[in-house]
UniProtKB/TrEMBL annotation:
GO terms for cellular component: cytosol; dendrite; microtubule; microtubule associated complex; neuronal cell body; synapse. The lineage of its organism: Eukaryota, Metazoa, Chordata, Craniata, Vertebrata. This is MAP1A protein. Residues 1-37 are annotated as: Disordered. InterPro entries: MAP1, RibonucZ/Hydroxyglut_hydro.
Length: 155
């Protein structure tokens, strides 16, 4: 198709749009679209921040299969928006089980939430099997009349 043909086809089908030259339905154009994720090698990093405050909107087992970290930070603290998401924490277990190697992984929650506590208690045996440690910190940092939990990570 030429650019003009692609442009006309998107105008003649107002409910359709083009993504990378492929016609798609905008209503189904969510972060978890039907377009396949391109295959590629896994990436190994020291520290990864779980996207979107550990919301299930765009993090699934595929993320944890592809982004392999020594430390994952879970920052969600908004139960009304599903942050952190139990499904994402379960996806970590599922993704890590596919690694084929038993590397140590540390999960660092930045908030003490009911979802995180329940997940920790209910999946503790699986975490041990997969060599996943959940870091709990009793350290507190006080700055300008504000205090918050903190932990120190050394590489």
């Amino acid at each position: 198709h030429t650019e003009d043909e692609l442009s006309r086809s998107s105008h003649s089908n107002p409910g359709k749009s083009l993504v990378n030259g492929i016609k798609t339905n905008p209503a189904s154009n969510s972060p978890k679209s039907s377009l396949p994720v391109p295959m590629g090698p896994s990436v190994y990093v020291d520290l990864a921040y779980i996207p979107n405050h550990c919301s299930g909107k765009n993090t699934d087992p595929e993320f944890f299969k592809r982004v392999r970290a020594s430390y994952y930070v879970v920052s969600g603290n908004d139960a009304a928006n599903g942050e952190p998401s139990r499904a994402v924490l379960d996806a970590l277990l599922e993704g890590k089980s596919q690694w084929g190697e038993n590397l140590q992984v540390t999960l660092i929650p930045t908030h003490d939430t009911e979802v995180t506590r329940e997940w920790y208690q209910q999946t503790h045996e699986k975490q041990q099997e997969l060599n996943i440690m959940v870091l709990a910190s009793s350290s507190t940092v006080v700055m300008q009349d504000e205090s918050f939990p903190a932990c120190k990570i050394e590489f």
